[in-house]
Specification:
It holds the Pfam family Beta-lactamase. InterPro entries: Beta-lactam-related (IPR001466), Beta-lactam/transpept-like (IPR012338), Diverse_Enzym_Activities (IPR050789). This is Beta-lactamase-related domain-containing protein. Helix content is about 40%, strand content about 15%. It has a seven-stranded antiparallel beta sheet with strand order 3-2-13-12-11-10-9, sandwiched between helices. A four-stranded antiparallel beta sheet has the order 1-5-6-4. The chain has helices at about 10-20, 30-40, 45-50, 70-80, 85-90, 125-140, 155-160, 170-175, 190-195, 200-205, 225-235, 240-255, 280-290, 305-310, 320-325, 385-400, and strands at about 50-55, 95-100, 105-110, 120, 260, 275-280, 295, 300, 335, 340-345, 350-355, 360-365, 370-375. It contains 16 helices and 13 strands. It starts with 10 loop residues before the first helix and ends with a helix. With about 400 residues, the protein is an alpha+beta fold.
Length: about 400
């Protein structure tokens, strides 16, 4: 869930910048340089810029019943922001879709800025949370042995570069605690840009990754982790990742519409594991329902309960360790990171959890209050954590009815 801070230049400026930059960017593919220069900051238009692999609608679609109650959601919101209108805030913050489900029913569904239920939006880092579920399914399918397998069991070429990779496990990648270097330098040389725009993400993950520290010691949000997990999934299952998602999750969950997963390039054909699942907001809500129902759909097991619970549990690392990787977390001591999911700690262990993405994409789940909140938007509009706090307030308000 990283942000870029680079504004795309005009065509002539891009050409001049490209010419000037080549001397300092030797070794980068021209396609990568062009994307960074002309596409600029990641945005919702990326759903149309990257090539993609198609996901088909489920033959057994799950149609969510409606029991719309805008007033109840407004009252819950107003308890958090007295005197304000939720619809006004959503419009002012560039929100495209905002959905609230309570006890499995849609109680609020609003669209803004030309969007509708048929609008396909991109997930950004919400895709990481889908990936975590796929890893659990691969373990269930006995394609991945265990969370404690060294990643070199599946990616032996890493050990050929540096034997220390043998000490990194699958679980270290899921928990963002591998010790792999990640620098948020601006422009071409930053890992944010590389892991987002590089046209061969397999090669990038296998050849560019370097180790900075001891695995398991420190939290550092790192977009090489989902790329490496994707490589492990691809090799362990023998399937393209989109195909595995389709067969093991998209179809069983009952996604009512088609979607896609963005690729690094047509030539490479590797899914953008750190981002890039493209779907309608109403289908993203079904990821939240899956969590709410402990991996079941209509009583049928889609994902084993044991994985759903383990995936969402807080890490054993102390909060101060989080602050080193993401300093803003010091202002939110209840926030934690699990297996590619975010959470808000609760003393009784029934934690609030969320899949979060750039520009405020959100799938928030309150198991206590039986609420799912989905937000998709063009920009954050408010602080990145404020969307999680807004959803927390709405869930608490509805749960108290």
């Amino acid at each position: 869930m990283r942000r870029f801070h680079f504004t795309s230049p005009g065509p002539l400026a891009a050409l001049l910048l490209l010419t000037a930059a080549l001397s300092g960017c030797a070794g980068y593919p021209p396609e990568y340089l062009w994307r960074v220069l002309t596409w600029g900051d990641a945005d919702m238009g990326d759903v149309d810029r990257f090539p993609a692999r198609t996901l088909q609608a489920s033959p057994r679609p799950q149609h969510l019943p409606q029991a719309l109650d805008d007033d109840a959601v407004q009252r819950a919101f107003e308890a958090w922001r007295p005197g304000q209108r939720l619809d006004a805030l959503l419009n002012d913050t560039g929100t495209q879709a905002f959905l609230v489900l309570h006890r499995g029913q849609v109680v609020y569904e609003r669209y803004f800025h030309g969007a509708s239920r048929d609008t396909v939006v991109t997930s950004f880092s919400v895709a990481k949370s889908f990936l975590a579920v796929l890893v659990g399914l691969a373990i269930e399918d006995r394609r991945i042995g265990s969370l404690h397998d060294p990643i070199t069991q599946y990616l032996p070429e890493l050990a050929g570069r540096d034997a220390r990779f043998e000490r990194i496990t699958v679980h270290h990648l899921l928990r963002m605690a591998s010790g792999i270097r990640y620098h948020e330098v601006s422009f071409f040389h930053g890992d944010n840009a590389r892991t987002y725009y590089h046209p061969d993400l397999r090669a990038l993950a296998l050849q560019h990754t370097r180790i900075d520290g001891e695995p398991g010691r420190h939290f550092l949000y790192n977009n090489y982790h989902p790329l490496l997990l994707g490589l492990i999934l691809e090799r362990a299952t023998g399937e393209r990742i989109t195909d595995y998602l389709q067969r093991r999750l998209w179809t069983p969950m009952g996604m009512a519409y088609g979607g896609s997963w963005s690729l690094d390039s047509k030539a490479s054909g590797f899914e953008k594991l750190e981002s890039g699942i493209n779907a309608r907001a109403i289908d993203f809500a079904k990821l939240g329902l899956l969590v709410l129902n402990d991996g079941r759909r209509d009583g049928e097991v889609v994902v084993p309960s044991v994985w759903m619970q383990a995936m969402l549990e807080p890490t054993a690392n102390a909060p101060d360790d989080y602050n080193a990787g993401m300093p803003w977390m010091s202002h939110h001591p209840d926030v934690y990171y699990a297996d590619l999911w975010w959470g808000l700690r609760r003393n009784d262990g029934l934690h609030e959890v969320a899949a979060r993405g750039n520009h405020g994409q959100l799938v928030y789940v309150s198991r206590r209050h039986q609420v799912v909140v989905v937000r998709n938007g063009l920009r954050y509009g408010i602080g990145s954590m404020e969307w999680m706090r807004l959803a927390e307030a709405v869930a608490a308000g509805l749960g108290g009815r």
